[in-house]
Write a structure and sequence with these properties.
The chain is α+β, with helices and mostly antiparallel strands. Helices cover 22% and strands 33% of the residues. It has 3 helices and 5 strands; from the N terminus they run αββααβββ. The protein has a 5-stranded antiparallel beta sheet with strand order 2-1-5-4-3, covered by helices on one side. The protein is globular.
Length: 138
């Protein structure tokens, strides 16, 4: 138990976060977080949902998964949606855990970096104009 707390303290202090993922699908599915979530992630990411990933990064994941399944360790950068509406950049490392014993299980490590601010809305709402006469108090 102490070892688990020590591991968590070391990884959190180093701003390194990790998860066990399944690579049987085109994008990694998170099976278990090995560390606490990093700021800006949470339950949606923990259940393997990838809707929070930037579309450009999501598009390259199937090729990265194939490379990892072929025995490579893949490193790079990716973005996930941050609660402020912007994008959280992270350095990532994706590698197989033990290809012979667990041919679809991999480790993904995240080292979060800067958060891009959210873009300002672009005129999504028209200004309100009155469409009827206001009520008068009796």
């Amino acid at each position: 138990m102490f070892d688990a707390h020590l591991r968590e303290a070391v990884l959190s202090s180093a701003q390194l976060f990790g998860a066990l993922v399944d690579l049987r699908w085109p994008v990694p599915v998170v099976l278990k977080w090995l560390t606490p979530y990093f700021d800006g992630t949470g339950h949606g990411v923990s259940t393997g949902q990838t809707s929070g990933l930037h579309p450009d990064d999501l598009a390259v994941l199937p090729a990265a998964v194939q490379r990892v399944r072929a025995g490579e360790t893949v490193t790079g950068r990716m973005r996930n949606r941050h609660p402020n509406g912007g994008w959280q950049w992270s350095n990532i490392t994706l590698r197989m855990v033990h290809p012979e014993a667990a041919p679809s299980l991999a480790l993904i490590l995240f080292s979060p970096e800067e958060v891009e601010p959210a873009e300002a809305p672009r005129g999504l709402h028209l200004p309100m104009t009155p469409t009827s006469t206001p009520l008068k108090a009796k």
